[in-house]
Amino acid sequence: MAEAKKLFIKTYGCQMNVYDSERMADALGASGYVTTAQPEDADMILLNTCHIREKAAEKVYSELGRLKPLKAANPDLKIGVAGCVAQAEGEEIMRRQPLVDLVVGPQTYHRLPEMEAIIRKGARAVDTDFPEEDKFDHLPRGPRAMRGPTAFLTVQEGCDKFCAFCVVPYTRGAEVSRPVDRILTEARDLVERGVREITLLGQNVNAYHGMGDGGAWTLARLIRALAKVDGLERIRFTTSHPNDMEDDLIAAHGDEPKLMPYLHLPVQSGSDRILKAMNRKHTAESYLRLIERLRAARPDLLLSGDFIVGFPGETEADFDDTMALVRAVHYGQAYSFKYSARPGTPAAERANVPDDVASDRLHRLQALLTEQQRATQDAMVGREVSVLFEKPGRLPGQLIGKSEYLHAVHVHAPDDQIGKIARVRVTASVTNSLAADLL
Ligand code: SAH
Ligand code: SF4
Ligand code: F3S
């Protein structure tokens, strides 16, 4: 047998890219590739890229510059760009970067084996189609090796919402939900390989409407079916849109014990004027009412969010509304970004808020969010939580895992507890984690 070729994948962007990188490794596994953690050893390097903000997209070009010496040292090295920058700027990448052999978008990576054969012959290959066929039906399953206790599983992809600032509907395409039976099969396979916690992924995961018994299923119905899989202990999902938070999903937070009490529910802004300009189709008030209903179903639900400051037209009064919303919700965790104009999106045509004004607002918002995150974490001290142990900690005899609220928790526990869930009592809150003792 020929010696295996080595594949190095660098992943940027969201969790879906993490999942996609695994699937690309599976696809190229069928062409004789095994993954390596060392780019210097690789026969092929793939950059799985993100286009969400300008900074994210620019990283690709600087990373490609850094790969030049590797290609000079090894002319057989093949370099590919995958993901959302590939989708948005495929032709431009090929023009600007002669060292790139292959460009593949997020919906065509099941075609990687054919593309690999083409580039091995010395040609270049670009595929940024939105194909008729479903890539998931054409992907080989990876080797059935054991793996860590947590995994991502994409159930829905793409977005039909067209928020005025966002590239995702263009880079990922229209909303598509995978059929129920495929998801259950993949989940059972993950559990057999040691997985205890699955995070269901979708750009609009709560808009899930995949075909199952008797027609299209909601995300709540899918979660309830997954909860019946023996050995699967924890279920999470991300990312959700407020307008798709249906009653049965809210109820599941109260009555499905395997569904973890953590919800990422981006709102972007607290100003109705800006929400309208963003094409979000909800108000600050409707979001707050939704949070109330979720907390009524699950009082200890930890909320996470995304915010954009400096959206075109945002005034100081609009920003005050965002701060007020944050104070009203009290987030356990959140991400906030300065607006970045993205080519091809409606908002890119509008006048930007001056950069220093946006930076100042981001500062103030992040200070408030950090304070809330701190307070939420500190309030865990003295409480009993359950931890799924993932790996050894930094100190000998210590393991690190996640609580149901997604806090990182350090515990003194034997190595054979990895992959298991234990009850612990939180003893301290440090910068980005909790310390706890086994009960
Ligand atoms: N599908 C998810 C999130 C997609 S992108 C959702 O709808 O919530 C993740 C986050 O990046 C967004 O929630 C938003 O806060 C941020 N984001 C998207 N486009 C952006 C832009 N042009 N500038 C700054 N932040 C942006
Ligand atoms: Fe982007 Fe809006 Fe779709 Fe989220 S809902 S992916 S922010 S367009
Ligand atoms: Fe980035 Fe594409 Fe995800 S733009 S955030 S990698 S969907």
Features:
439 residues, alpha/beta, six-stranded parallel β-sheet, five-stranded mixed β-barrel, 34% helix, binds S-adenosyl-L-homocysteine, binds iron/sulfur cluster, binds FE3-S4 cluster
Description:
This protein has 439 residues and is of the alpha/beta class. The protein is 34% helix and 23% strand. The strands form six sheets. It has a six-stranded parallel sheet with strand order 2-1-3-4-5-6, sandwiched between helices. The protein has a five-stranded mixed barrel with strand order 17-18-19-21-20. A three-stranded parallel sheet has the order 7-10-13, sandwiched between helices. Helix 8 runs parallel beside helix 10. The longest helix has 24 residues. The chain is globular and about 60 Å long. S-adenosyl-L-homocysteine binds next to strand 15. The site of iron/sulfur cluster (SF4) has 10 residues, from helix 5. Belongs to the methylthiotransferase family. MiaB subfamily. It is an enzyme of class 2 (transferase). It is found in: Cytoplasm. Its cofactor is [4Fe-4S] cluster.
SSE blueprint:
Blueprint: E1 5-11, H1 15-29, E2 33-35, E3 44-49, H2 54-73, E4 78-82, H3 83-96, E5 102-104, H4 112-120, E6 125-127, E7 150-154, E8 156-157, H5 168-171, E9 176-177, H6 180-192, E10 197-201, E11 211-212, E12 215-216, H7 219-226, E13 234-238, H8 247-255, E14 262-264, H9 272-277, H10 284-297, E15 302-309, H11 316-329, E16 333-338, H12 355-378, E17 384-392, E18 398-403, E19 408-412, E20 421-429, E21 434-438
Parallel strand pairs: 1-2, 1-3, 3-4, 4-5, 5-6, 7-10, 10-13, 14-15, 15-16, 19-21
Antiparallel strand pairs: 8-9, 11-12, 17-18, 17-20, 18-19, 20-21
Helix pairs in contact: 7-8, 8-10, 11-12
